[in-house]
TrEMBL record:
Protein name (Swiss-Prot/TrEMBL): Tricarboxylate transport membrane protein TctA
Transmembrane segments: 20-39, 59-81, 109-132, 138-158, 165-184, 204-223, 321-340, 360-380, 387-409, 415-430, 437-454, 466-487
Highest taxon listed in the record's lineage: Bacteria
Keywords: Membrane, Transmembrane, Transmembrane helix
Occurrences of domain DUF112 (ranges): 20-442
Amino acid sequence: MESLSLLMEGFSGALHPINLLWVVLGCLLGTAVGVMPGLGSSMAVALLLPMTFALEPTAAFIMFAGVYFGGLFGDSTMAILMNTPGQASAIASTFEGHRMAKDGRAPQALATAALGAFIGGFCAAVVVVFLAPSLADVAASFGAAEYFALALFAFVATSSIVGDSAVKGVAALVVGLGIATVGMDPTSATERATLGIPELFDGISIVTVTVAVLALGEVFHIASRVRRDPKTVAMKTGGRAWLSRSEFREAAPAWARGTAIGLPFGIIPVGGSEVPTFMAYDVERRLDRKRPSPKFGKGAIRGLAAPEAAGNATTGTAMGALLALGLPVSATAAIMLAAFNQYGLQPGPLLFDRAPDLVWSLLASFFVALVVLLIINLPFAQLWSKLLLIPAPYLYGGITVFCGLGVYALSAAQFDLYLLLLIGIVGFVMRRHDIPLAPLMIGMVLGPLAESRLREALLSSNGDYSVLVSSWITWLLYGILAVVLILTVRSKLRGRRGADV
């Protein structure tokens, strides 16, 4: 009951007229960026990150909630209409969603996605309200060794699971950790990897890296392939933008199953919602095979409903893990963690005691943002496709200018623009060679935490490394990590054997 009373207080803050305005604005901007070709929810958060620093913390994170969920809605819209998912978490939605659009059922597909995202996100928000305080209480018992184990868990799990190659995942992680080490050593105050450049003594801003890797790197990638990739033709989206009673009954079980699959993955560092969305799609596909008249491959509404619910359910519980544990399980969550750090806030158990107004207003804003997005996307989904009429040179030229202005506005330093260009090229190379970006972001954000906690643990034990495995929590984390790695290796070996056959 205490959580409910605190949530009601949070609603009083989230529904304040100015905060409600920021939620609506965040939803609109996040969806608008998410539906643009080649962009996605993580890029929406990256591009709009500099804008929020002019706001006070509660308003900034309430707006971020709108941007975060709005970007996910935009990913689905692009996946359905254009067969171009904004990011990997929306890939599963293209299989049946785009077939529905090609069959003239685009409005119904968009409605299915919007309702699925709302149901998954709403259920996740309810779980977070009751689970996050309990997670925070558990995290309060974490010491330096436990936090190091948690960071190591995120490093290894994310780099090994995301993408087809564990080597590429580890390479991305190493790049992120390398960027994080640039600057002054926090303990000895000696220079590290600065090449004697004074501008690097304070390190490289997470905002610069985020915008460069996610936004500018994508612009370079699109520009490099403009003559190779054929232009995508927008789908017609006329017709009713709601579901009939039979369609709703068809989709409802898939929404429920997708939500159940997605909820646990919000606290497991597997790089985001890619794994649960594919799992939800595969479950529905297997169930469909047992039906008298299979519909998969012909625009099955269940094949779209389940991944959408799973994706947003994962996103919602991921925010709970971020707030209660300080653990980002995806690139977008890592950006959110960086935003907290910019305001001098550290997500974790102490955040609930030090900034309860911010935490509960943010949790309440999840519900508000989901309702606002449902209102926006159900009747106006057809209008978002009009953004695709913007010529590509103007679209990506505008994004490039926005990247530069956003980074320059933070420091007013010309050197940061050079860094933006250099790291943007790194992001482009990573995309060209299919190197995942999530391990880089998580490595940069969690790298300093892992380093500081490792030093604290070793200092407290006079250099005895056994302190790193001295509690049941560390054994539990390392045990779960071992199971995850074994299952991952097993599934990849099976995939290779199947490909060989």
